[in-house]
Specification:
With 506 residues, this protein is mainly alpha-helical. It has helices at residues 2-8, 15-23, 46-49, 100-110, 124-143, 150-164, 194-209, 215-218, 224-232, 239-255, 260-278, 284-296, 304-314, 327-340, 345-354, 361-376, 380-398, 403-410, 416-424, 426-443, 447-463, 465-505, and strands spanning 75-77, 80-82. It is elongated, with a radius of gyration of 34 Å. It starts with a helix and ends with a helix.
């Protein structure tokens, strides 16, 4: 009797069926693809954003506009499952005003699907639906006239994160033989997903800048972790992406006051790693542009924290080989500090001398240009503190066999402010540079350098003929002594050679 009763009970489902029931097995996880191959990670980040809807391993769930998985698969093409539930939503003009924020959230969720752009023929319909939806979102944010609700802020940050925070699609610079390549001549790598990424960036830019975005609520979702991931994107090889990032980060810095110290610290860490470890990063110029604007807004007197940033970050940024890629932006940041506090000119000049290139003439040319800008903003007291070290270096540049370096050093006398500083301290400066002037006049191979040298000699002789003649006598005496020492050395070596030869014969 008991056996008969047990036999009427429904049998227990198999382990595999149980697994499908609780994990949403293969058949219940349609893949948004109509091609013969599927890319893993096409919808990276969706599982993390939806912890209550776990996805099975090996599948790429597609999120529809309600935030749930599509209920079923209704077609197959080329052996790959394809979901037709990815459909366009009504436009904002088709719904009453009370439902627009709800529709806004649905459209944000619809745009959380990430497509494969490595195959241009893949998911054309779905890509176009997403593109049009993103454009609608941009228009809605631009024309919004009421505060965004907190859930809308959360969904907006989530959509931006899913689309932007992605793995690099191209090999990083570290995997290239950088030593054998000139980075300035390399073609920038363009992201194939840019048709969608650009609109996402445009949406995010307008969303952050919108007066309807409450900063106190939005900072919960655009938090420190979000900012760090945004900063990671600055290493993108696509210059269009870095340009958007630069503008967006600047807006975030302006809107979220509470994040400002953290943003500065995070940027500092990027610079430290670049200077002292890798010397490889694509976004240094853009980060310096942001900092240039930030430094411009520093209040006076400057905080000690900001002065340490100048000493520990900006000045050491002159060290890497790829300085030409960001020197203009770096020079602007340096000048902001000097113009705000003229006492920093001495620190900057000594820093430039510390990192002065020895064998790289193109970098030396840039250093001289930056040095002229700094000297133009330098006051006499700061100039006197560093002039001895400075003009020993300028004298070496004046004698350089690279004619552009020599010319650039001699052009310093064309600046009225610098010439006036030199004139006031000529008794110290002229003895230092006089040997270089004499060598150039007699033996430099470039005619333009010789002409500029004669002009500088004339300036000094007109200002103080007595000092000029005294330096000339001293130079001639030093030359005679040097010749005597050279002859003495030659005589000594000759005697040693004769002793060595006689011993070898014996």
């Amino acid at each position: 009797m008991i056996r008969q009763l047990l036999g009427r009970l429904p049998k227990k489902s198999s382990r595999s069926a149980e697994g499908r029931e609780f994990t949403g097995g293969e058949s219940n996880a349609p893949i948004l693809s109509a091609s013969t191959s599927s890319r893993s990670g096409e919808l990276t980040g969706n599982r993390a954003m939806y912890p209550n809807n776990p996805a099975p391993s090996g599948s790429n769930p597609v999120i529809n506009h309600m935030g749930k998985y599509p209920p079923a698969v209704n077609s197959k093409q080329n052996g790959i499952m394809f979901s037709s539930s990815y459909e366009a939503l009504p436009s904002f003009q088709e719904v009453p005003g009370s439902e627009k924020q709800s529709l806004f959230i649905k459209k944000l969720n619809l745009c959380c699907a990430v497509f494969d752009f490595m195959d241009p023929a893949k998911n054309l319909k779905e890509k176009e639906i997403k593109r049009q939806t993103l454009l609608e979102l941009v228009d809605y944010v631009t024309s919004a006239n009421e505060k965004f609700a907190e859930n809308a802020l959360q969904e907006a940050a989530k959509m931006v994160a899913i689309n932007l925070f992605r793995a690099p699609t191209t090999p990083t610079q570290e995997n290239k033989a950088l030593e054998a390549l000139d980075l300035e001549e390399e073609e920038p790598v363009m992201d194939p997903a840019w048709p969608h990424l650009q609109i996402v960036y445009e949406f995010f830019l307008r969303f952050v800048a919108s007066p309807e975005t409450d900063g106190k609520l939005a900072k919960r979702y655009i938090d420190h972790s979000f900012v760090l991931k945004l900063l990671d994107l600055f290493d993108s090889e696509d210059p269009r992406e870095r340009d958007y990032l630069k503008t967006i980060l600047h807006r975030i810095y302006g809107k979220f006051v509470v994040h400002r110290p953290f943003i500065r610290k995070a940027i500092n860490n990027i610079f430290y790693r670049f200077i002292f470890e890798t010397e490889k990063h694509n976004g240094i110029a853009e980060l310096l542009e942001i900092l240039g604007s930030i430094i411009n807004g520093f209040a006076l007197p400057l905080k000690e924290e900001h002065k340490l940033f100048l000493v520990r970050v900006l000045i050491p940024l002159h060290k890497p080989k790829c300085l030409p890629m960001y020197h203009q932006q770096l020079s602007y940041c340096i000048m902001q500090f000097v113009e705000k506090d003229c006492k920093l000119a001495d620190i900057v000049i000594r820093g430039l001398l510390k990192y002065w290139p020895i064998t790289n003439s193109s970098k030396e040319f840039m250093f001289l240009g930056e040095l002229e800008e700094v000297l133009e903003a330098t006051q006499p007291a700061e100039f006197q503190r560093c002039m001895v070290l400075l003009f020993h270096q300028i004298a070496r540049c004046m004698s350089s066999f690279h004619f552009q370096v020599a010319e650039r050093a001699l052009f310093l006398w064309n600046n009225d402010h610098i010439e006036n500083l030199i004139k006031q301290n000529r008794k110290v400066i002229l003895p230092i540079i006089f040997p270089a002037l004499e060598r150039n006049t007699k033996g430099h191979w470039n005619q333009a350098v010789r002409s500029l040298t004669l002009n500088v000699r004339k300036i000094f002789s007109d200002q103080d003929l007595e000092l000029f003649e005294e330096c000339s006598r001293k130079y001639q005496g030093d030359e005679i002594k040097a010749l005597e020492i050279q002859l003495k050395h030659e005589t000594t070596w000759k005697r040693l050679e004769e002793i060595a030869a006689s011993k070898s014969c014996n």
